[in-house]
Structure formats: C-alpha cells, structure tokens
Amino acid sequence: MGQDDHKFRLGEVLVVCAPSGTGKSTLIAMLRERYPDFGFSVSYTTRAPRGAEQDGREYHFVSRETFVAMRSKGAFCEWAEVHGNFYGTATKPVEAMLHQGQDVLFDIDVQGAKQLKKTFYKGTFVFLLPPSREELVRRLKGRGTDSEESIAKRLTNASGELAQAEWFDYWVVNDDLDAAYKELEAVYLAGKCKPSLRPGILDNIMRTWENNG
C-alpha cells in the first residue's frame, strides 16, 4: 500500500468472559502464545503484597483511601471488591497503549466487562460458552480441586453469567478446543479491522487518487 498500516491503527480492546470451567484460561494462554504483544495494565489493589511481589510489577499497592479517591475521580475503567479488598484497572495506561496501536486483552468477569463496555464501547467482547451444563459439571469435577459445594456454587454463578451473554458481540462454544481457539482467533483478527480502529487509513488511500488526479 506504500504506507505502514500501523500508523493508521488504534489498538483493539479484546474482552473475554466465561463461566468457571469453560476453558477460558487455556484459550487465552493459546492466544497469548500466538500473539505475545498484547498490552498489559498493572492493576491497583488495596491488599498487602505477598511474598516477593513488588509495587508496580504485580500490582500498584495503595491504601483503601487512595483507591476510593481514585475511584471517585473516575480513574478506573473497571473495579471490584474481592474478599474485602479493592482491585481496579486504571483507564489512562490502557488508553495510552491503544493510541500507540497496541492491543489490550482483558480476562475478566461479566461485571467487570460491563464496566469496560461503558469506557471501551468500541472494544470486542467475547463470551465463551460451555457446550452444556452436563459437560461443565464433568469438567469442574474432573479438575479435582472443587468440593461439591463449590461446584454447586460455580454452576449457580454460571447460570447467572450465561443470562448476560446476550449483550456480548461474539459467542464461542468451547466444545472442541482447537475449533474454539480458531474461532476466538478469528474474532480477534476481525476486530482489528474495524473502521473505528483504523482512523485515517481511508483518507490516506483516497489521497492517492488526488495525487494522480
């Protein structure tokens, strides 16, 4: 085309959600291995560092007061309270990566995705579906890490999450891992071609007509 395409491309926000046991972690790991340049935003948290964790590497460790102040100023594109501690993703670092043409992948729950939808409404939102309740039960039991009580809770949560799948842009059923990965990859690559993420590219091409007028 005579011009570097990346000069005319904004980064894509790819958001992937799924009920526990659907295989989300495996599929995301496969996507990251194939595309290692995804941007990563270090989250903020009010919990204390563990082991060898360092401030600014695993998390930005802040006080509860600081977190609440940042939240009140709209600093987070998504946040949640988990086991009494706050966790949140700052908007500005993500926006900086996107403006540099770097794609950002979010592995997040449905509530977090809903928050992201308000800030990054042009993002690509994917919901991974289990093929059936029975198969999800089989997978959860097969992990050997969950009690019957825990499995029952995860199934209840899955039902609530599936009820919200309708507002996502794409559904990928993880019945066959390789097929599901190909669909997830296809969705990601298609999202990169959205006109909203390629500002200026059409004008640049049209100018070639003017220059040869």
UniProtKB/TrEMBL annotation:
Q: Name one GO cellular component term.
A: cytosol
What sequence ranges are listed for the domain Guanylate kinase-like? 11-189
EC number(s) from the headed UniProt entry: 2.7.4.8
Q: Which InterPro entries match?
A: GK/Ca_channel_bsu, Guanylate_kin-like_dom, Guanylate_kinase, Guanylate_kinase_CS, P-loop_NTPase
Q: Which GO terms describe its molecular function?
A: ATP binding; GMP kinase activity
The UniProt annotation places ATP binding at A18, P19, S20, G21, T22, G23, K24, S25
Compartment(s) of residence = Cytoplasm
- For this protein, what reaction is catalysed? GMP + ATP = GDP + ADP
* Pfam families per the UniProt record, alphabetical: Guanylate_kin
Function, please? Essential for recycling GMP and indirectly, cGMP.
Q: Which family does it belong to?
A: Belongs to the guanylate kinase family.
PANTHER family reported in the protein's UniProt record:
GUANYLATE KINASE, GUANYLATE KINASE-RELATED
Q: By what name is this protein known?
A: Guanylate kinase
Q: Which organism is it from?
A: Pseudodesulfovibrio hydrargyri
Classification lineage: Bacteria, Pseudomonadati, Thermodesulfobacteriota, Desulfovibrionia, Desulfovibrionales
